[in-house]
Design goal:
Helices cover 26% and strands 25% of the residues. It is of the alpha/beta class. The protein has a 9-stranded mixed sheet. The chain is globular. The mean pLDDT is 87.
Length: 457
């Protein structure tokens, strides 16, 4: 009897070794190796190369055609996908447990089915009755929507011809397994095989496929990085589990722009899209309270206005505390150092807390000036006018640098009724002729603080 050969595979990066290791030498993660049975083909495959079947082509002779798309009937999700679902595309959906991935996808399934297209919803985590209960709660009822509680890849593939769907939802890829591979579901080998199989189905049969992927505690998709390279589009669900707002962000898209953003609100009847998130997110801004300022940011191609709050108070301990929610902590520490060195605010013995209202995370550098103004406002106890919006990147020498999409930012401010916007001086030439809003250019932090807060009080 032949000896069974085993190997150890890192579940984070896919690194293989013949013996167990505590720390992966590739991704430096601890306790990620799982034993798997090594697969060996009993017969050697002979490949015959047909030279007439494939040859290099001149780029000018290649004909292109526009991708065929169909709508999800959810405008925010269509925006993230680049205008709708591309026929034959493979989309990977990631997010924390309980954040609303399955809820959104069952809503998409219902909308597409109601439009006359057949949809197959494959679940390896829930039974048909559990999915039916969720669908009943969401008011979903369609003759074109089929539910299949199965995680065997061979059985799934065998049932495709009888249904002939135009959209497949797989929830989730970590529960799907191939009986040809001896390792357990969720291992690197099974995830690679499952994703590869659905990719072949999508391209060969022209079926659009959504695949749900679990995330690690660090927030990245579980499994090898190869999983993200294989698919056409990767979208992430963001937001706090116990917060009502959810963000859907595209981090990879072969058929549209990346970093596009969709905003939803979780309600009893499922996820509801927000057509004007700026208006909702700044509607509860307090009046005449120091430390609150409206900032202008752009996510993908969408301009958004958000409320940023800062609280500065004397520390009760020897070392001042710094806390940041919704913005990069290291960026906040850098800006506080600039504020002390270039403006002269003595906040080294002050606790500083920064928060972006609504549970939204922003990494765009244009929020720098908003952080500075909010901290200065709280430190001096001078409220910022409720009619003012600020935007601008801040450098280490205290200069205010230009930002992108300045026309879109100003248009959003005008639409929501703001009277003033403070912008970098280098952006002023492009927008100085815009009417209906007072545009104030600044070139350094001290000038910006004096204008917004009314001088050195």
């Amino acid at each position: 009897m032949a000896k069974i050969r085993t190997k150890y595979v890192c579940q984070e990066c896919g690194y293989e070794t013949s013996k167990w290791l505590g720390k992966c030498p590739e991704c430096t993660k601890w306790n990620t190796f799982v034993e798997e049975i090594e697969q060996k083909n009993s017969k050697k495959e002979v490949f015959i190369i047909d030279k007439s079947s494939s040859r290099p082509m001149n780029i000018n002779s290649i004909e292109t055609k526009e991708e065929e798309r169909f709508s999800t009937e959810i405008a925010e999700l269509d925006r993230v996908l680049g205008g709708g679902i591309v026929k034959g595309s493979l989309v990977l959906v990631g997010g924390d447990p309980g954040i609303g991935k399955s809820t959104l996808l069952i809503q998409v399934s219902s909308n597409v089915a109601n439009a006359g297209r057949k949809v197959l919803y494959i679940s390896g985590e829930e039974s048909e009755s559990q999915i039916k209960m969720r669908a009943k709660r969401l008011g979903i009822n369609s003759d074109n929507l089929y539910i299949f509680a199965e995680n065997n890849l061979s059985l799934i593939e065998a049932n495709l011809d009888s249904i002939n769907p135009e959209l497949i939802i797989v929830d989730s890829i970590q529960t799907v397994y191939s009986p040809e591979i001896a390792s357990a579901p969720g291992t690197v080998s099974q995830i690679k095989e499952g994703t590869s199989k659905f990719m072949k189905i999508s391209k060969k049969m022209g079926i659009s496929t959504f695949v749900v992927g679990h995330v690690t505690k660090e927030g990245s998709l579980a499994g090898p990085k190869l999983l993200e390279h294989m698919v056409d589009t990767v979208i992430y669900f963001e937001g706090e589990r116990y917060n009502t707002y959810r963000l859907v962000r595209a981090v990879k898209n072969r058929f549209g722009s990346t970093n596009e953003l969709g905003v939803f609100e979780m309600r009893d009847m499922g996820l509801v899209e927000l057509d004007n998130p700026s208006k909702v997110l700044i509607s509860e801004k307090p009046k005449d309270v120091a430390g609150s300022v409206i900032i202008s940011t752009v996510e993908g191609t969408r301009p958004m206005l958000l409320e940023l709050q800062a609280l500065v108070s004397p520390t009760s301990f020897g070392i001042a505390k710094r806390t940041a929610t919704g913005v990069d902590f290291n960026r906040v520490a850098l800006l506080l150092a600039v504020l002390e060195k270039r403006v002269g605010l003595q906040i080294q013995n002050q606790d500083v807390y920064i928060n972006v209202v609504g549970g939204i995370k922003i990494n765009e550098p244009s929020i720098d000036m908003g952080i500075i103004i909010a901290v200065a406002s709280s430190f001096r106890n001078i409220p910022v006018s409720e009619h003012v919006v600020v935007t601008g990147e801040v450098g280490l020498t205290g200069e205010v640098r230009a930002v992108s999409f300045i026309e879109k930012r100003i248009a959003e401010c005008k639409k929501l009724g703001f009277k003033k916007i403070v912008i970098p001086k280098n952006n002023y030439e492009a927008v100085k002729d815009i009417k209906g809003i007072d545009i104030i250019p600044v070139d350094n932090l001290r000038q910006a603080i004096n204008i917004v807060l009314g001088g050195n009080k």
